[in-house]
Structure prediction request, 304 residues.
Amino acid sequence: MNKGTKVAIIVLNWNGHKDTIECVESLKKTTYPDYEILIVDNGSSDGSEAILRKKFPELKLIQTGKNLGFAGGENIGIREALAKGADYVLLLNNDTTVDPDFAGELVKAASLNPRAGILCSKVYLLSRPGIIWYAGASFHPWLGWGRHRGYGRKDAGQFDRTEETPRACGCSLMATREFCEKAGLLDEKYFCYCEDTDWGMRARKAGFKVLYVPASKVWHKVAQSTGGPATSMSLYYFVRNSLRCVDRNAPLPFPLKQARYFSILLTNLMGLVTMNAPKMLGIKRIYQGFRDYFKGKFGEFKDF
Prediction:
């Protein structure tokens, strides 16, 4: 099957060696014949590097030296993979397990769709087998938000067609070498959240397709950060990075831009209602996200 077409599967670890071990063990059952697993440790402080090196001495592990965020850590792995001749780079969350055919199905879809630059798996909730987490997604750049299609619904084959999707999902995402070379890598200013949405929008602007491939199946733990402060932090990144993503990729004239800002504000305030976070802290994080975007502050958030 596609012999000679090399896939590099990049697993980013940050203080999560237990999840990473489970993920890699499932990857070792991959049926695609020409793949390698590359672990990138994002400056873990829990001993992950030593544990993973001992557990998987046969695998390449790159130590970044500090937490570079999702985009920065993944880019380290992507550059290494491309330098070693990979035709495809497959970004996979470390808190996932995979179907043995998941990589092969993505490669098959890519071979049938030459203009595909990004291809995304169908993702289930690991804690609820058969329940969908991602089956493609909507995205409304003029409003600044979107939703996972099929989220929380039982998979009855209703989303089993390979098709273009408005929003990519970095949980299990394969990108082609051609796309990476022409459109560039992930934008590291995001640090975490929205970099996959940005990549997908840039893919379309560069003439590539973003595909959802349901035959490629992944199960995701969707681990929630413990405690209010950690959970509310996602609101900060969602707000700041959503503003950057849509303003860069779908610019609007001033009056409509203000309406979009209000839409993003309202959407995140509504999301706060259902989050496991102190509400006043959540409101503070939303404010800080807007503040830092307009001040041009990106990268890792520091709450001084």
The chain has two domains: 7-220, 228-295.
